[in-house]
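GSCFA family protein (Caballeronia choica), 356 aa
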Amino acid sequence: MHPYSKLPARSFWKKFVSDSPWFALQLNDEPKFRLHVDDRVATAGSCFAQHITRYMQRAGLPPYVAEPAHPLMIEHGGNVESYGVFSARYGNIYTVRHGVELFEQAFGIIPMIEDFAEHEGRWFDLLRPNVQKEGYASRHEAQADRAYHLERVRAMFETADVFVFTLGLTECWFNSAAGHTYPACPGTVRGTYDPEIHHFRNFTHAEVVADLDRLIGELGRVNPRLKLILTVSPVPLVATRTGHNVLVASAYSKAVLRAAAGEVEAKHDHVAYFPSYEIVSHPASFGQYLASDLREVTERGVAHVMRCFLSSFYGIEPQTGRGEVPVVAGAENAVAVAPRVEAPLPECDELFNSAP
């Protein structure tokens, strides 16, 4: 008799991995908590996180949208593409630092960051460069919309039951004069790059852990009942500014994020980790969920991730086939908290890093 004698099959590589087809593996462990169909599930993070909203809708679960499009915009064909992608209209949040700064603005810990750029008579918010694609008519309009956005972010954090945060990158650009972080380097999506102001940084494991600890602590202060689910995006970097090749830089980034998420999750009973990164990216998957560019995740891969997610947190029967995500029992009675808008396909600001 020894410590491994009575462990379940999932504890052994041969029994759990070698002897089973990848699509049939239930890689998610028993979760720390379960979710209910009526829970308000807020989402944020990298572009991969946008899949969560789409697949929750397919499963009959209305995602929590605290910043919805006005019903008249939907009725009269207004541009509502950026509404409902996440729970608020913040666009992609690639780094934890960006998430911390968003929270701090929403709750008045730091002043609202005003970093706007004018192009051909239209104004753009560089902290949400791809949200309002056609821009704003004036700087004042951009400021007003940003202030409203932060108000809705505050409401989201105060009223959500669950916050799913997908960690995407360690690399980012920040404003050395004002000290804030960008989702994309100015001059790629919008704005003009200024080497005197816009500086590159690559967060360390210690920095990511510190930022996660701060965010979790602040969230607990404003919403003590909030549960968190951390995931890591399996999508590699599209480009790197580190000087290393992009494959090595991606390995560093994902390793740091995965290690940080694991370290932080182990400290808290109300914080869980979900292995979307492992489902798609582990070598044992033989890359079967990657598109021909070996970067984008196929719909088949996303469906596997979301089947495991729903099985783990909503307790539905494990799905071992390759079919669509099932509708969660009881979801037909869940009440939507905003006019339903079909979430568009994910868009990644990071893709502009590879543009000429």
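The radius of gyration is 20 Å. The longest strand covers residues 162-167. ok done for today
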